[in-house]
Amino acid sequence: MTRILHSRGYPGKEILLPALRALKQVTANEDPEIRPRGRNGKPGGLILLRDLPVIIVPDLHARPHFLETLASWIPPGFTEPALALMEKDALQVLCVGDGFHSESPGYKRWLEAYQEYLKSYRTHKAMDGEMEDSLKLMLLVMDWKIHYPANFHFLKGNHENIANEHSKDNRSFRKFVFEGDMVTLWFKKFLGQEVFEWYYDFEKNLPIMAAGNGFCVSHGEPRRYYTREEVINCYSNREIIFDFTWTDNGESDEHVVEDYLRDYFPDMPDALYYGGHRPVSDLYQLRAGGRYVQIHNPLRYPVVYLRNPRDMKNNYGIVYIDGCG
Question: What range does the record give for the signal peptide (predicted)?
Fold first, then answer.
């Protein structure tokens, strides 16, 4: 982790390609008790978390030091940091996705990078900085998944769209400038088509939903209700993926969160659904009659830490790990 974070410049093809190849081997052989197989015999879109304490990490958005902070954070009830606990099979970590595209802290850099983009990256210092943060973050994600496949998971978010495609499961993206097109052009120009294709395949096969002990998680609030079998087989109906990653506040079908919680936890009336996607101004925002807990704060490092369902009653298990109160 230290080598990745403190190396100079962005990770190049010689680092990313071996990591993507190793990751493909690991994810193709995930434990079916954790990631059930679909009808095609391949790992599906659902993660069934183990009976271990869990940390849920909201949108990361080009913040590699969020994961660095998490790695050294000592969860309550333990005397060792999170990374050592994953190593000892005592903890699991679930990220809700969105690795690329810095948000408001990177606004000025995006404006500078846009001017570089308009000139086809004849100069590219600002965009190199943006991609350095995104790629170092995602290299950590890959590294942790390779080393702790049963204890570390990364769900697909709407920003997992390296091709900036507009399709059944994705939508092209722009916020401050033309971030989606800018990343696609830079990636192909400086990392090459081969790395691009491997990374595209990685994104296309990410899981979209997780269920633990009394809670469900996805990147965004699900738009519609889908059966467990449909979620597992989402890659054959990619509109399902869109409905878990792009739903805006207020766009979900009525009672959809309640339907999922009743399906997965019929005997747990206090079960909760966690997600990120849309920013909140403080620790969390409640939706769906208080059953959906939105946790993405782009200026802080909040996580959900759950050892058992009782923890959900104490601030929904949400804590800041950045030491700022």
Answer: none
Q: How many CA atoms lie within 13 A of 164 on its CB side?
A: 16
What is the pTM for the complete model shown? 0.96
In a domain, 325, yes or no: no
pLDDT 10s digits, 221-235: 999 999 999 999 999
Q: CATH number, domain at 127? A: 3.60.21.10
The domain in which residue 58 lies consists of 2-320
Can you read off the two tokens belonging to residue 69? 């902070």
Q: 210 has which bridge partners?
A: 47, 217
β strands within the chain, DSSP E: 46-48, 54-57, 92-95, 152-154, 209-211, 215-218, 272-275, 285-287, 292-294, 302-306, 318-320
Q: What is the pLDDT of residues 93-135, one digit of tens each?
A: 999 999 999 998 999 999 999 999 999 999 999 999 999 999 9
Would residue 176 count as lying in a domain? yes
SS3 call for 217 = strand
